[in-house]
Amino acid sequence: xxxxDVIYELRTRNGLSQDELAEKVFVTRQxxxxxxxxxxxxxxxxxxxxxxxxxVSINTLLGSPRQLICxxxxxxxxxxxxxxxxxxxxxxxxCKWCYADGQYTYSDMDELIDVxxxxxxxxxxxxxxxxxxxxxxxxxxxxxKRYEQLSDNGEFEQFKxxxxxxxxxxxxxxxxxxxxxxxxxxxFVNLAYPLPSGVSAKFLNDNKTYLGNQLESEFGGGRCFGxxxxxxxxxxxxxxxxxxxxxxxxxxxx
Length: 254
Fold this sequence. Notes:
about 20% strand; alpha+beta; five-stranded antiparallel beta sheet; globular; two-stranded antiparallel sheet
């Protein structure tokens, strides 16, 4: 699809007339008409406004002329997993796991490699091959090339350690000592927990990125502990493989 088709599809999918879209992005109806006829292309400011309005990347608005990859972990990007700046705008350089709300979530390349390898291993790709591939690829990405410039001098790592200390201080029976928290996107870990009232409830935002980890229960039995946290809360749960039969252990506001 090219730009004119993308804008037309997004406008009609969201039930907007040309006049309504024009009002939202501060242009005339004639300008929208020219975009959809292919006579002109939105300028940079208009593209930013359209991106924010429809929650799609500028790359998508331009007809996806290039393949986006995360400049921290190398993951191919689409609009559903692109990271966000502090103002909520999509940042087309990173995925939600590596960059969320204007914050880089990894400062240790080896730690990131350990996390990524687990998701890359398959019948065609061994753990050793995945590790070697990432060890070669990551240093070539923009984030690691400019790490000294982009780094927050360890502030986020200190925050993660504070969360780890708070979680371990809860002394939850059966929960192993938490050593590491990784970036986790809400839509992948937002389980519905049964409550005493008989209803089930989710506590996360699918579009947010949290810090968490999964650890095998010290009691065995095939259940795992899930730990999730951010600046506002700590959540601990247990569940079976693939998140089945979840039970909420603790939800604590910070």
